[in-house]
Amino acid sequence: MANHKATKKDIRQSEKRRDRNRYYGKTTRNAIRKLLATADKKTAQEELPKVISMIDKLAKRNVIHKNKAGNLKSGIVKKINALA
Predict the structure, then answer these.
(1) 28 and 54 in contact (C-beta within 8 Å)?
(2) Whether 76 contacts 54, CB under 8 Å
(3) Backbone angles phi, psi at 2, to 5 degrees
(4) What is the pLDDT of residues 1-52, one digit of tens each?
(5) pTM for this structure?
(6) What is the pLDDT of residue 75?
């Protein structure tokens, strides 16, 4: 266990950050799943900017790597464009 005051504070902060990052990550993953499950192209295109924004925010916060964010966005756009 930590003995220094600053180390205890750092542990508290990292736990808060971890919970926050897990929440944003899970919320974004659920939004991606919901978007990809949509069969209607018009609805999917309306939701796409929101999901892309969520992915960009994860990359900005360093929850995911910027290249992973780019790969996710690319894959989502390809699948939505392939809808009939």
Answers:
(1) yes
(2) no
(3) -70, 145
(4) 788 999 999 999 999 999 999 999 999 999 999 999 999 999 999 999 999 9
(5) 0.86
(6) 96
* Residue 70 and residue 52 in contact, taking contact as beta carbons nearer than 8 Å: no
Query: Where do we find the tokens 């919320």?
Result: 27
DSSP 21-39: HHHHHHHHHHHHHHHHH--
In the chain, domain spans: 40-84
Average pLDDT over residues 52-67: 97
**Long-range CB contact pairs, 46-53, < 8 A, 24+:** 48/76, 48/77, 48/80, 51/76, 52/76
Where do runs of H (alpha helix) occur along the chain?
Answer: 5-37, 41-60, 66-81
